[in-house]
Amino acid sequence: MSHEKQWWWPLALEEALGSEPLAVQLLGQPLVLWRDADGQPVLMTDRCPHRGAKLSLGSVQAGTLECPYHGWRFDSAGHCVSIPALPSFKPPATHKACRHPVMAQHGLLWGTLGEAAFAPPALVGLPERRLIYGPFDVATSAPRAVENFLDTAHFAYVHRGWLGEATHPEVPHYDVTHTADGRPVIESYKAWQPRATASSAEGGWVTYRYEVLSPYSALLSKQPDDGGPQDSYTIWACPDTEDSCRLWFAQYTSDNTSSDDTLRDFQIAIFAQDQPVLESQSPKRLPLSGGEVMSAADRLSAAYRRYLQQCGIGFGVC
Length: 318
Hints:
Layout: E1 9-13, E2 22-26, E3 29-35, E4 41-45, E5 59-61, E6 64-66, E7 73-74, E8 80-82, E9 99-100, E10 102-105, E11 108-111, E12 129-138, H1 142-150, H2 155-158, E13 177-178, E14 184-193, E15 204-214, E16 217-224, E17 231-241, E18 244-253, H3 260-280, H4 299-311
């Protein structure tokens, strides 16, 4: 089993899966999500075992997934329960669609292509108000996107006038520690920002905390030194292919005055600044074995790359 199959990966917003099948992709494999008669999510390979048609082009009928080509129906375990061309025929166990584990967590549906040894990341002690932004389809690898989320040195240029200023590009010294299971953490990082949050009217100092949650996810928490609202952000990255990914960002905030639209517009504007730069990086896969130089300001990036190597990650890296 490849190392990537030991992990759960985000596939879709829970609310995005309605009464019709939903096509998704994970680790280069086309998949289909649908809900059974009890409303529970089901994840299958997006291929009918009969003639290879995409099941996501079909429909959900009486709690089963119906193939669009010949109408074969499959239950939530993947068993074929009906072949319309042979009404009296009982399909054998070999006439089965490939089913994969799926679960709901953090407002998203998560899937795995194996028997995952690692659960979706836990989140503890965050503000109760949660907004999820995305999906964003990005033409770069998932680890490139996560490393950008962990990077602070780009604020002064990519997010000029928002999260940084070119007149203050310096990155102060910070220490990288690790959790008991080896995930990199920065416990405290000071940054001056001209507009740290959607509700900020002027610049101020902000204390950041970074934590890598899993190979393709991370948590950022920040607290303005003036006592403004606490915000925590997660990046959830689904590795669609080696060179592309789908992202969601979740915001957990103690800001109870700003509207959902105000908070959402701010975060979408921030990622709109990131995306073209991310997609310009070459190679699209994150280099783990050389090819890019590092500076002392890149301690967290270097630690993240070492963590991916320790996890045995081989998808989206080079």
